[in-house]
RNA sequence: GCGGCUAUAGUAUAACGGUUAAUGCAUCGGUUUGUGGUACCGAUAAUUCGGGUUCGAUUCCCGGUAGCCGCCCCA
């Protein structure tokens, strides 16, 4: 007998059916991808919690005003690079493109209830309406960690140390990545009006941000257009950044350095900014970035609460892990520990009963109630990475004597189910 | 949003302005009617969509869509 995944009649008519592709720029997570995704999320969560961070979440829907409030420049961003729509109640709604405004909103809303400093983390999915490329999709997830109500530089040190530890906990070695630290405040102090007129400063910072991507000659050429005659810009490290770097070194973190080209694209950062880069050269996009924002809660009224945070994306994270071969093989296996194999459909229910019994012991188990031959079922269980099989036929049903087989060792044990449970408990 | 490149079974590749569009892996069946990974045999399955040139287009041209790369932007 032949079985087709789809009947031939249906295949001939495929063009009449919907596409099986996912929406542009978003991903489907088939079980193996999902396993990797869960591994990344659980490692993130474990590290953040080890630093005493508490998990929170919010809806993906936010009023558009939340993102527009930060200035006209951002309004353009909201209009062109977000999923924004009008709901049935005539409210303008945006799918959150980042988490920081949401968490600032939550913190500001409960500021009199919360005891500071707060350490909060979340793993939100975020949306942006942009042309997809490697490392940049329309939906991605981020580990977001923030400390609120601690303006001392120790908070900067701790947060960057958490970012560092997150990578270490995936098995990364310090020489695989580099932490680059700068300060917005330092830039403002050192680039005075005498060098660059205030209206050209944003252009200058953008140029600085691009420095690594363009040639030195090109940089100098562009720089000359912006700075005033006879002036030269020389950015040097200040005390605050030195303290942060010293703090990191005293915690054993050696791969952080001052880099005046780190500016971050967003204008709510006020002081320390930092990014983490893969040094392999395969992924030239920052894999993590963050900074201090001292005034973000001001837009909700009341006194400002200082915050510092970072976000790291799952897409760049996975690219990094794959580049450095840091995803353990066992993570990819999604097979249950035990598979119960009925010989024929007659034994389907007996197999299900046995599976149910084993489940009660907390062991993962499934049944192969397909119509393939036993040999194929066993082969499949083995390829998928299951550890044990139990074949159920007429004999087993009538005698109540079962045989479990360890697929790794080939070892078999026969007896009543109750007496076999110990054997199944092997990791 | 702008520019360049690409699009063939589930997947990875091959080929051609004209006979049946080839191969590996995967899937399903068999050799083996109750015990796996190997081997052998067989089967299922594709030219992204729309238009044009042509006797004939999967191939050439135009457009849509999607992917990749660069720019813009980067939350």
Describe the structure in your own words:
The protein is an alpha+beta fold and 427 residues long. It has 2 domains: 31-60 and 96-191 and 235-329, Bira Bifunctional Protein, Domain 2 (BirA Bifunctional Protein, domain 2, 2-Layer Sandwich), CATH 3.30.930; 335-424, 3-Layer(aba) Sandwich (Rossmann fold), CATH 3.40.50.800. Helices cover 37% and strands 19% of the residues. It contains 16 helices and 17 strands. It has helices spanning 8-12, 31-50, 65-68, 72-81, 100-109, 153-169, 184-190, 201-210, 216-226, 239-250, 314-323, 329-332, 348-359, 374-384, 394-399, 417-424, and strands at residues 54-55, 61-63, 84-86, 92-95, 118-122, 125-127, 139-148, 177-183, 256-258, 272-278, 288-293, 307-313, 338-342, 365-367, 388-392, 402-406, 412-415. The strands form 3 sheets. Strands 1, 5, 6, 7, 8, 9, 10, 11 and 12 form a 9-stranded mixed β-sheet that branches. A hairpin with a 5-residue loop joins strand 3 (84-86) and strand 4 (92-95). The longest helix has 20 residues, at 31-50. It binds one RNA strand of 75 nucleotides through helix 4 and helix 14.
Tally the helices: what do you get?
Answer: 16
| Text of the CATH class of the largest domain | Alpha Beta
Any idea how many domains?
2
User: What is the helix fraction of residues, given as a range?
Assistant: 25-40%
Quick structural summary:
By secondary structure, this protein is α+β, with helices and mostly antiparallel strands. About 35% of the residues lie in helices and about 20% in strands.
């Amino acid at each position: 007998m032949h079985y087709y995944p789809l009947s031939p009649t249906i295949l001939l008519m495929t063009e009449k059916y919907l596409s099986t592709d996912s929406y542009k720029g978003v991903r489907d997570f088939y079980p193996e991808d999902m396993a990797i995704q869960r591994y990344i999320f659980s490692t993130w969560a474990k590290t953040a919690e080890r630093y005493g961070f508490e998990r929170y979440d919010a809806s993906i829907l936010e009023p558009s005003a939340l993102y527009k409030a930060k200035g006209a420049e951002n309004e353009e961003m909201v209009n062109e690079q977000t999923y924004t729509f009008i709901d049935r109640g005539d409210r303008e709604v945006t799918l959150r493109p980042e988490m920081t405004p949401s968490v600032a909103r939550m913190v500001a809303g409960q500021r009199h209830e919360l005891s500071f400093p707060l350490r909060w983390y979340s793993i939100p999915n975020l949306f942006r309406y942009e042309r997809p490329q490697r490392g940049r999709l329309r939906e991605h997830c981020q580990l977001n960690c923030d400390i609120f109500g601690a303006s001392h530089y120790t908070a900067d040190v701790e947060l960057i140390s958490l970012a560092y530890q997150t990578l270490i906990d995936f098995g990364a070695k310090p020489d695989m990545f580099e932490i680059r630290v700068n300060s917005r405040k330092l830039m403002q102090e050192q680039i005075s009006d005498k060098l660059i007129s205030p209206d050209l400063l944003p252009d200058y910072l953008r140029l600085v941000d691009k420095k690594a991507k363009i040639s030195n000659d090109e940089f100098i050429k562009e720089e000359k257009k912006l700075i005033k005659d006879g002036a030269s810009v020389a950015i040097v490290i200040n005390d605050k950044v030195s303290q942060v770097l010293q703090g990191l070194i005293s915690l054993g973190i050696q791969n952080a350095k001052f880099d005046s080209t780190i500016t971050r694209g967003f204008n709510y950062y006020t002081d320390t900014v930092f990014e983490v880069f893969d040094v392999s050269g395969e992924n030239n996009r920052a894999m993590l970035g963050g900074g201090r924002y001292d005034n973000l809660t001001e837009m909700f009224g009341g006194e400002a609460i200082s915050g510092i945070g970072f976000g790291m994306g799952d897409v760049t994270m996975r690219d990094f892990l794959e580049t450095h071969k840091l995803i353990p093989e066992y993570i990819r296996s999604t097979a249950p520990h035990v598979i119960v194999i009925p010989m024929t459909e007659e034994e389907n229910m007996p197999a299900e009963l046995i599976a149910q019994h084993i489940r009660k012991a907390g062991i993962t188990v499934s049944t192969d109630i397909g119509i393939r031959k036993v040999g194929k079922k066993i082969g499949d269980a083995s390829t998928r990475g299951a550890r044990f099989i139990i074949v159920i036929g007429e004999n087993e049903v009538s005698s109540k004597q079962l045989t479990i087989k360890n697929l790794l060792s080939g070892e078999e044990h026969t007896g009543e189910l109750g007496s076999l449970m110990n054997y199944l408990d092997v990791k």
